[in-house]
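Researcher: Please predict.
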Amino acid sequence: MKTHTVRAHRSAEALPKQEQLAWRIAQVAADPVPVTDDVADMVINRVIDNAAVAAASYSRGAPSSARAQALSHPPSQHGAGATVFGELLTTRVSAEWAAWANGVAVRELDYHDTFLAAEYSHPGDNIPPIVAVAQHAAERGLTGADLLRGIVAGYEIQIDLVKAISLHEHKIDHVAHLGPSAAAGIGALLSLDTDTIYQAVGQALHTTTATRQSRKGEISSWKAHAPALAGKLAVEAVDRAMRGQTSPTPIYEGEDGVIAWLLGGFDARYEVPLPEPGEAKRAILDSYTKEHSAEYQSQAWIDLARRLHREHPEIADPSKVERIVLATSHHTHFVIGSGSADPEKYDPAASRETLDHSLPYIFTVALQDGGFDHERSYLPERAARPDTVALWQRITTTEDPEWTRRYHSTDPAEKAFGGSIEVTFRDGSVHREQIAVADAHPLGARPFARADYVVKFRRLAHGVVPDGEIERFLDVAQRLPELAPHELAELSFIVDPAIRSAAPAPAGLL
């Protein structure tokens, strides 16, 4: 890897194109380096993971709305169109709208992969737009190997940006890293030249930068739409760039660019690591998926709560507990903990989107139930249960500098997303424990492997996708690197006809 120093430049400095971050991103995407076997295996895992969450979310409001919008936009004249999760494989829509609908379905339950460093991210959000373009453009001779290369590039760029550039510090939503990465991934898929990808990356960044109010206070259904919009706009940016249209430059470093006015300003320096020419793209191996449907920084806490449920059930009884303090990292405390100062995080009537960003709520439910379910744990009656509310209100978080240091460590062996718990009982006794990483993390008690991804898909698709269709999809997904052009459209699943007919299909303007 080579580290590139990136900063804002005055217009008089005339930063050459070849020294701009967008160009260097494009160079990485355009480099046709072979994909290693372990990386290919992980891509397959994440394709299965995305589909699992999309199946479970099929009938929910946000995916149903996005799907209804997509189905109103047939394929454009220059390709076969792309499939939409749940619909017949012969049903095709325009690629950018497939990216939109499938992106919302994948993101709805906050249940797919994650990478946390200077910024937050869900790099699996790259997959829907890249797959949509692959399906649409399959007639160009694209294969599973091309799709694999595109997904690997998308993961690489997003994770490298997340390692170096904090967006939330400046109240910018994390999808500002997704637009450029998805555009780069699509460029790699299509084997576009460096200059075309460079223009697409610039346009994608310019059009996908927004504030992070979507993840603050009363969190709305837009949270699922935000990454889907970034994927949709990335598809459109590539389309424009392929037609010869250019982007604002330098998009990151310009005097009125992203760094100067939206990030750290002219005094900021960002050290961005990117693969050198000929170096394999392996960033996907740094990411990790979720065993539980909740914000990633709560995953280890859920596992600790499950253990406490078995070993110390008295902690779940509010009549015995005076207070519980969860000492954790700065990010966890201020984003999903009491450090956010969001009263909604303690509100039994809060939205599901808000509750899955409330560590006190998540920990309480997992502690009392001995597990955490993507549906049952968020039901209004579950959130309002009196003993849950009583215990929930006694849980606070605090930042511990050591957990913050470990959160930001570049040493995989010490990087951690958990913390320590101190339970003070009403009789004055105290119980203390800690957990560093989730059980499913690569360094956890039960690291996720292929079999776990398959089990997750079967479990979440059960009752939604017919058994034979589950098996067909798993077969296609696990052959991804060898897929022929006509098989790319099979990287989707069909839900049971009764499920499809009963799902919401809200009407709008278009």
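Model: The beta strands are 2-6, 270-274, 321-328, 395-399, 419-425, 430-435.
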